[in-house]
Amino acid sequence: MKYFDNILQTIGHTPLVKLHKVTSDLPCTVLAKVEFFNPGNSIKDRMAIKMVEVAEQQGYLKPGGTIIEGTSGNTGMGLALAAVIKGYKCIFTTTDKQSKEKIDILKAVGAEVIVCPTNVEPDDPKSYYSVAKRLAKEIPNSFYVNQYDNLANRDAHYEQTGPEIWEQTGGKITHLVVATGTGGTVTGTGKYLKEQNSAVQVWAIDSYGSLLKKFHDTGKIDMSEVYPYITEGIGEDFVPANYDMSVIDLFEKVTDKDGAVMARRIAKEEGIFVGYSAGSAIAGLKQLKHLLKPTDVVVVVFHDHGSRYVGKVYNDQWMMERGFLDVRSVKDIVSGRG
Ligand code: PMP
Which of 40, 55, 118, 155 could share a disulfide with 95, CB 3.0–4.6 Å? Predict the structure, then answer.
């Protein structure tokens, strides 16, 4: 018999899949590291387990303990899976702008979710961030994960994602492209690959409305770069401790529209039903086409699954309301011309 003892053991060893149509204008080979094959449907399972294991080793998390994090998304899913199998409680704080589905998904895997108001400053006692911190202080035997500054996040990618890509490409990778948020994926994976071959180029994809690219390029925190944007999971209004900016050769910004439109194209043209940030990653790579040559082997990380975005990127009405989908193309589809 061949089986895994529990679901956590199925994390990692995700496939690398060649792209054909959406990157047909690029001269090189483009391979997607499809991370929705993880049990929580995202790359964040890797770092969630790692952060829990390190907390156990360091004595922050003891049997029967409570995991606390401010999250509504992929990290919460990974932490919740770890909590189920390892016998911890999970409490997540989130904001009232998150969809009910996201909250229900976390509850489905046993987490308690506390919904906090969106329109308050981070240091307001009612913010999801402050509530998570306060709960961690008040609840005995609890551990506040803090994925932004917890360096086990980037270590997970140094230990797993990097070696997998190196091995899967037989060391032939020339470029790594990663849409970036906490910085864990790009820093950990990029550092490992550069240690194997210092010529590997690491390109990070940021969102308009985020200060990360400007910080990388100038070393300065420029708050004038920061404004609301729609793309989920990437970009920040501060620089998390997981970044080592020296690992990143180039930062490229992508608009909300270009990321969303490209995610839909990846689903339709490659049959890979990806999340929003995978669209941003490919859109960003295509903006950098002039830097690529035929012998290049580019690996792009696809962070999560499209099912999380059915009410958004994959909903025509949502796309039209934001000017991401032109009305004529929908009419064409309805009339059978599209
Ligand atoms: N895409 C999605 C969908 C994510 O959830 C995240 C995590 N915030 C990222 C990209 C960026 O990954 P990282 O936090 O490792 O930079």
Answer: 118
Q: How far is the CA of 88 from the centre of ligand 1 (A)?
A: 24
C-alpha to C-alpha distance for 212 and 225, rounded to whole angstroms = 9
What backbone phi and psi angles, to 5 degrees, belong to 305? Answer: -95, 150
Q: Which of 159, 178, 185 is nearest to 243 (CA)?
A: 185
Please give the pLDDT value at position 190: 99
Please spell the DSSP secondary structure of 190-256, one letter per residue: HHHHHHH-TT-EEEEEEETT-SHHHHHHHS---GGG------SS---SS--TT--GGG-SEEEEE-H
Residues whose beta carbon lies within 6 Å of some atom of ligand 1: 44, 73-74, 179-186, 232-234, 275, 277, 303-304
**Which CA distances in Å does 89 have to 101, 139, 322?**
21, 11, 39
Reply yes or no on whether 44 is catalytic.
yes
332 has pLDDT over 80: no
The overall pTM is greater than 0.90:
yes
Count of C-beta atoms within a 10 Å radius of residue 294: 8
CB neighbours (10 Å) of residue 317? 10
Q: Distance between CA 15 and CA 2 in Å, rounded?
A: 20
Complex prediction ipTM: 0.99
Sign of the torsion angle spanned by Cα atoms 241, 287, 43, 15: negative
